[in-house]
Amino acid sequence: MASAFAPGKCILFGEHAVVYGHPAVAVAIDQGVRVSIEESPDWRLEGMPFDPSRHPHITHIIQSIFNYDGPPLALEVQSDLFSAAGMGSSAALSNAVGAALHNHLNSDEPLDNIKLARLAHSAEATAQKGRASPTDTATSALGGCVVVSGEHVEGTRHIFDTSLVTPEGKRDWSINVVDLPPGICEAWLVLGYTGEWSPTGRMVANVAKLMSEKPELSDDMEAIARITKAGLTALSAGNLEALGMAMDACHERLQRLEVSNPSLDRLVEAARPHALGAKLTGAGGGGCMVALAEDPQRVAEAIEVAGGKPLTSKLGAEGVRVV
Ligand code: PMV
Q1: Which atom of ligand 1 sits closest to the CA of residue 11?
Q2: Amino acid 169: pLDDT
Q3: In Å, how far from its chain's centre is CA 321?
Q4: Among 298, 229, 302, which Cα is nearest to 268's?
Q5: Which residues line ligand 1 at a C-beta cut-off of 6 Å?
Q6: Which pLDDT score is estimated for 156?
Q7: What's the CATH code, domain 2-179?
Q8: Which of 64, 266, 280, 319 is the most buried (most CB within 10 A)?
Q9: Average pLDDT of the chain?
Q10: What is the whole-number distance in angstroms between the Cα of residue 181 and the centre of ligand 1?
Q11: Which long-range contacts (CB under 8 A, 24 or more apart) does 207-213 make?
Q12: Higher per-residue confidence, 19 vs 26
């Protein structure tokens, strides 16, 4: 049996601003998706007959990317990510399927993580009507800390460029990484899931409408871009206090863009007295918040008491791998 594991992700800075060409910073987290593949008398997913139309990511990878026409396969999927919560569960699934299938077909060849990032991005785009940012797929494939931007970002290491023809025209991205200093392992991320869900596309559209009604909000977008750069400097230097302060400041700007909600604010407020900083992560309107903590247990308890579901991770887990 061939098996692979791909991590989920957490956006530390730059959600929504990345849609306007500014950088976004994401880290891979310890939780993720594990996929196992073996030959079988008929096509199966988690023991049930496999219906290709219900699983466009998996179908695209097997048929269009690997051009697989061998015997039927049985796939098992185990995930410890909350789905549709901004943790990159579909990107992790795409990466894990790609890596497990590669291992099943060419077990002697090492994984090419950049190739996997590209194929997972193409699977996401196919499943999402041609609209997908490469943030989740690149972070899950490469692991560590990934910076996605319209152009190369100073202080980062360039890995590859990618583009996508979307219904709104061609979009280009530069994918870069930041090597995290050893001191960063003194801090943990505690994610808090609100249990609420809001589609990313709707949140992005809401921000676009608000920006056209209140042009002064472009100051907040610019502020998020500045905070992202300050956060990146703090990350690279292992300056945890400055990193936490940047997260707090980012949350205030995201509130002004009306992407936070009472549940996210409640979890952020509950975490802050015990944390270095806290903010919503991802599209907002529900999903998750994240806190930076030296005492993750305490923060996880505070989040739980406030009604959230906590998950603790180090900053920058390893990327997709065969397991
Ligand atoms: O889908 P999420 O919750 O990880 O958030 C996506 C981040 C946005 O900046 C809001 C959208 C995007 O495409 O980058």
Answers
A1: 4
A2: 82
A3: 17
A4: 302
A5: 11, 15-16, 18-19, 86, 133, 135, 200, 203-204, 282-283, 287
A6: 95
A7: 3.30.230.10
A8: 280
A9: 94
A10: 26
A11: 207/16, 207/19, 207/257, 207/258, 207/259, 210/257, 210/258
A12: 26
Alpha carbon of 303 to ligand 1 centroid (Å) = 23
* Tokens linked to 139: 């972070």
Give residue 283 CA to ligand 1 midpoint distance, Å: 5
Place of tokens 């709707």: 202
Ligand 1 nearest atom to the CA of residue 148, by list position: 14
Atom of ligand 1 nearest to the CA of 87: 4
pLDDT at 107 exceeding the cut of 90 = no
pLDDT digits over 109-123, tens only? 999 999 999 999 988
Q: Distance from the CA of 110 to the center of ligand 1, in angstroms?
A: 31
- Residue 124: the pLDDT is 86
pLDDT bracket for residue 50 (50, 70, 90)? very high
Ligand 1: which residue has its CA nearest to atom 1?
A: 86
5 is written with which tokens?
A: 């594991």
Q: CATH 3.30.70.890 residue ranges in the chain?
A: 182-314
Q: Where in the chain is the domain with CATH 3.30.230.10?
A: 2-179
Tokens found for residue 260 = 């936070």
Return the ligand 1 atom nearest residue 16 CA. 9
pLDDT of residue 164: 87
CATH 3.30.70.890 fits 182-314, yes or no: yes
Ligand 1 pocket: which of 135, 166, 254, 279 to mutate (most atoms <8 Å of CB)?
A: 135
- CA–CA separation, 74 and 86 (whole Å): 28
Phi and psi angles of residue 53, each rounded to the nearest 5 degrees, phi first: -70, -25
DSSP output for 213-228: H-GGGHHHHHHHHHHH
Structure confidence by residue, pLDDT tens digits, 153-191: 988 999 999 988 887 788 899 999 999 999 999 999 999
- What is the best residue among 10, 12, 13, 15 to mutate for testing ligand 1's pocket, by most ligand atoms within 8 Å of CB? 15
